[in-house]
Amino acid sequence: MAGQISQRFIDDLLARTDIVDVVSERVQLKKSGRNHSGLCPFHQENSPSFTVSHDKQFYHCFGCGAHGNALRFLMEYDNLRFPEAVEQLAGRAGMQVEREGGDDPGAAKRQQKREEGVNLLELASRFFRERLALGQGKTARAYLERRGLSQEVIRDFGIGYAEDEWEALKRYLSAQGISEAVQVEYGLLVHREETGRTYDRFRDRVMFPIRDWKGRTIAFGGRVLGDAKPKYLNSPETPVFHKGRELYGLFEARQANRQLSRVLVVEGYMDVVALAQFGIRNACATLGTALTADHLQRLFRLVDEVVFCFDGDNAGRQAARRSLTTALPSMIDGRQVRFLFLPEGEDPDTLVRQEGREAFENRVTCASPLSEFLFEQAAEGHDLKQVEGRERFVSAVLEALKQLPDGVLKSLLLKELSSRSGIETSQFSDWLATHAPPVPRPTAEAGDDGFEAMMATSGEVESAPMAEYGAGPGYGESRAGTGGPRRGLAAARSGTATLSLSWPARIVQLLLHEPGLAETLPERLDWCSEAEPDGRLCREVVKLLRAGRYRSPQVLLAHFHGTPEGERLDQLARREMAIPREVRASELANWVRHLERQSERLTPAQEYQQLLAKSRQPGALSAEEKQRLRELIGMLAAGGSA
């Protein structure tokens, strides 16, 4: 039997976890000063009394008194035992749970490797800072002086120097007892497979440590001093660094502004540092990649306003258009995005030196709001004096607004579009409702049983009795009636019918349109098998609707944003809902009864596979289900039948 989870591992796990990220995946939070607030998931309430503190890594409800850290939240919210909560949190952080003693022969080795990884990057950062101060760093110091950086800014950002040697850092870290394999894994050494040689990745470069939200070094960026290429070099992806999530300078911005309300996103390290030198301490930079949804999620958890800064050339405009596309799905009410375009040939570093802090901050304040930039881009290249030009302009704006969550901002943009085009707002609403992008029919591939089983051919639909599809009164007519086409089958032929979906998928789609119907479902979820296509997703959606009391499909979609489940939900949300509103409750009850009957008809082998799949989730099986699983194992081993 494995030993107890070590306290050191738990401490490290909590240090690597941001409780705001964990809670916001399950509860809708809104930034409120230095904290985040929302409706408490542990008791019924109409006004928010649930607070999550980023600084203290703690949650507390002033209504029911629930409180604790990230582990406690998982235990209470997901109804997990302590070891299961640790497993889940560790899996989320990409860590393997380590225990004291027990019968795991690799535990000590993993523990040693983890400790090496935790200390490695901080040791490297200290090495680079020391080399900047020594004789070898003379050229780098001169470069930083020419760029006008003070000792205070160099200290605050931890800037260092990687000397022009092949193995300087390698020798230093090896002397600290850190193996070359770990140095390679964390991106500090390059390994040449053809020769087996390892050498320092960063050489003769000014080094900028990239820090996580707690200030720990997780990667580096290096700016070359000579003519070597590339000019800027980042650490590769490692167990602790994913460039699509991290932003350079965000930790330093939070340290300098305890009440941060706006973040300026620029292009490079020197832009961030140069702005800080002039007292503008709220800038950060992406790390050699385009803006991602993860970047935006991280920013909007800290502030309500994000300003993107771009060069004024064609490349800058193109990058701005990509950022606009990325930002639209995240623009729930209360958030603000602006676009700042600099004079051609200038960047934040050069411009702030020319015109000073006040003039540059005025540019930021006057940056174009998202709405203005959206309309400007939609109108580009079109003559709005002509009908055809206005048609293309309107279509471009509506295409963009399809990505925008429902809310006040979307309503105002539609009203503004109506004013600019002379078309009634109601016609835009109709267009948005009928021009959802089609969901491509998945192709059946090996191992893709879920999608293959989910899609039914039109012949299969027509040959099945309507009662089997749970059609309630008012939904369709019997074949013995007038002989006219039933609405359900007509919709099926259109390619958007509910009938082409698996049973759990139909339920999920219906709940996306009518979240309140989750309250009518049976308390236990035994009727929805995880072995069914979309079965696990259905169970998760029902649990969220009950626990989080979501009443908006957009909020539910935002919960799963950026995941395969989120893409699947988006597909289902875009499909036409062919069932009339007045019979949706009865249809849902019929579908659940069908699944209940179906589960009762399972063969022992099917029931065994269903329970086995469910058992792979920690704590998913009840005591009765565990007993039934043992019975089925014995039954199948003996060749018996139910």
Automatic annotation (TrEMBL):
Q: Which reaction does it catalyse?
A: ssDNA + n NTP = ssDNA/pppN(pN)n-1 hybrid + (n-1) diphosphate
Q: In its UniProt record, which GO terms are filed under biological process?
A: DNA replication, synthesis of primer
Keyword DNA damage (UniProt):
no
Q: Which InterPro entries match?
A: DNA_helicase_N/primase_C, DNA_primase_core_N_sf, DNA_primase_DnaB-bd, DNA_primase_DnaG, DNA_primase_DnaG_DnaB-bd_dom, DNA_primase_Znf_CHC2, DnaG_bac, DNAG_N
The note describing how and how many cofactors are bound reads:
Binds 1 zinc ion per monomer.
Task: List GO terms (cellular component aspect).
Answer: cytoplasm; DNA-directed RNA polymerase complex; primosome complex
CHC2-type zinc finger span: 40-64
Compositional bias (Gly residues): 471-486
Give the start-end ranges of region Disordered: 465-491
Q: Please list every transmembrane segment annotated in the UniProt record, as residue ranges.
A: none
Enzyme Commission code(s) on record: 2.7.7.101
> Its domain of life?
Bacteria
GO molecular function term, any single one? DNA binding
| Entry cofactors | Zn(2+)
The residue ranges of the Toprim domain are 261-343
Sorted alphabetically, the keyword list is: DNA replication, DNA-binding, DNA-directed RNA polymerase, Magnesium, Metal-binding, Nucleotidyltransferase, Primosome, Transcription, Transferase, Zinc, Zinc-finger
HAMAP family of this UniProt entry?
A: DNA_primase_DnaG (MF_00974)
The UniProt similarity line reads: Belongs to the DnaG primase family.
Q: What is known of its domains?
A: Contains an N-terminal zinc-binding domain, a central core domain that contains the primase activity, and a C-terminal DnaB-binding domain.
Subunit structure, as described in the record: Monomer. Interacts with DnaB.
Function per UniProt: RNA polymerase that catalyzes the synthesis of short RNA molecules used as primers for DNA polymerase during DNA replication.
The protein here is known as DNA primase
> Lineage of this protein's species?
Bacteria, Pseudomonadati, Pseudomonadota, Gammaproteobacteria, Oceanospirillales
Its encoding gene is what?
A: dnaG
